[in-house]
Amino acid sequence: MASSTCAVLVFFMFSSFTLNPHVKQGYMTARARYVLGGCEYIILFFAVFFILFFHAALIRMRSREFALFRVLGMTPGQVWRTVFAESIVTGLAAIAAGIALGTVFLKLFLMAMGALLNLPVSIPFALPAQSVLLTVALFGAVFVLEGFITAARTALHTPKSLMLAERARQRADKASWWLVALGIASIAIAYDLAIAHSLNIIVNFFPIIGLTALGTYLLFTQISVKVLGALRRRPLHGVSLLVVARFAHRVRDNALVLTVVTLLSATVLSGMGAVFGLKSLVHQNSTQVDPFPVMLIRPQAGAFPLTANDVSRQLAASGTPVAGQVTFSVAAVRAEEAGQAGSQPVHITVVSASTFERVRQHLMDAEPETRSFLTDAPPAPGSGRANVFVNYPLVLQKPLFSTNQIRVLDVPEMSFHLNGQYDARILNEQMGRVSDFVLEVSDADYAKLTDALPETAKYEITGFDVPDWKHALVATSALQNRLNAGQKPFLTARADVDSEVTQTLATMIFAGFFVSVLFLLACATVLYFRLQWQMATDKRQFSSLLRIGMRDREVHKTLTRELLLLFFAPVVVGLVHSTVAMVDFSHLIAVKGNPWPVFVVVAGIYIALTAFYFAVARIRYARQVLP
């Protein structure tokens, strides 16, 4: 009941936030709203699994009760109606309690979101009717479906199977070498798809998830049987012999629990590790995204609303004065691979070698952080040759041009031989007509090219050095208001990008925190049901062991080792899975920086929480089981 209420509560608050009319009218970016909307459906998917799995486990714990009802004359239809009615009543209570608690805590939720997103004003409280209807409809359908399935499954069991369900699997399992090989192959293929084929993650995502889940289940059902069998053939004694023997007889009972906890643990670790790791990497690479704190592009043809002096005055008036600036000319052209019919033209910005060197030196002097990617620039190209510089965050895994010979479509008689492709950025990230792919050519070739180009292909760029760029958002917003939609891409600012990325990442962290809490609650609940299910058997077995002479210290040691395996085996396997996921993540984003320290911190926190829950469960379970 509490777990279902928690799932309803979180979904209701998220949907109330995303459907809040004030939020929809622009309190946050569309990307951040998209992140929260995605989290809603993650929570809903989780809730379906959560409710189906745990209610089934609860019904299984009451199998003797239903067996007694059947023996006393209750028909399968009556059992079905009883279980179904219980599910509906539980669902209605959970939905009502979740919506009520969500309404109570919604204002705090809105305040927290406003603080995290650094909004200028607080988000007004609103309780959208659509959010209430959506929560009732979706979770109502979930509880009806869950009640139907669970009731049908319970009604189909005979009184004997219900009465003996607790002992149905108390025998040593046997493993198949074919299934062992399948489990190892599934995990190996999933890891290979994640590490060696990171760029195809959109296609490989679901195969990786499916193969990992299958491999993990077979790891705990087949591979563990082989390992335990090998241990039992060794000369064990004392507590070790007892622990191995008891686990060997409970492999299949524990397998589903261990698999679920492993996958949930891996999800929490990799999800939060990736979000915090991305936040760290964005901070480490913000200068590489936009080397100039503010950059203005002015077309040389026609009038333009802003000049470099306008930008300097506005920045100074807003308390973020300019410390220096550099102005240079570029040309925007289209280039394609020579001799490759039908190749896709690439929009690219051409600069002269002297201009490139002047801008590079200016950036390294004004922005020391740019030295990491600007220091090792290639030599200036000679006549008929060129250097290509790709844009962050590509650090392209493959060349922008598949051949070394390209030609300029706008000036067909001009072609260049490429010396190579490099990662040295001198332009801010661009979304307009001026590309942030840069083609460096010799001064003579640049003069010849620009003489043949129309004025509409020529631009003047001014980069501004703003030491206090993080507070330049007010100035850049005022300047953007003077431009129409087509002109806005010509003014770029690091503060604008930083604000949007920070807001999106803050949303991901906030949403990820709630999802992670739900997953941690799920892990705790799974382990709780596992312990409750085996409690009666453990009471009988430990009482018998004490009667035949086993010492209290040995019994406590046996219980401790078993619970250690039950709690930490999934964490260890989950850590391996999430480590592979982080390797995939680091390949996918392909930027400079180190996300691993953040992942280690996340893993450490998760292990500490697991250790705390283990300590509490160990003390309580020992009091319940041992005489």
From TrEMBL:
Q: Specify the domain of life of the species encoding this protein.
A: Bacteria
What is the recorded name of this protein? Answer: FtsX-like permease family protein
Which InterPro entries does the entry mention?
ABC-4_Integral_Memb_Prot (IPR052536), ABC3_permease_C (IPR003838), ABC_permease_BceB-typ (IPR027022)
Task: State whether keyword Cell membrane applies.
Answer: yes
Q: How does it sit in the membrane?
A: Multi-pass membrane protein
The Gene Ontology biological process annotation of the record reads: transmembrane transport
By its UniProt entry, which Pfam families does this protein fall under? FtsX
- Alphabetically ordered keywords of this record: Cell membrane, Membrane, Transmembrane, Transmembrane helix, Transport
- What organism is the protein native to? Alicyclobacillus macrosporangiidus
Compartments it resides in: Cell membrane
Q: Which family does it belong to?
A: Belongs to the ABC-4 integral membrane protein family.
All copies of the ABC3 transporter permease C-terminal domain together span 42-154, 513-622
| Gene Ontology annotations for the cellular component aspect, listed alphabetically | plasma membrane
Keyword DNA-binding tagged: no
Sequence intervals crossing the membrane = 34-58, 79-112, 132-156, 177-195, 201-225, 255-278, 508-531, 563-583, 595-616
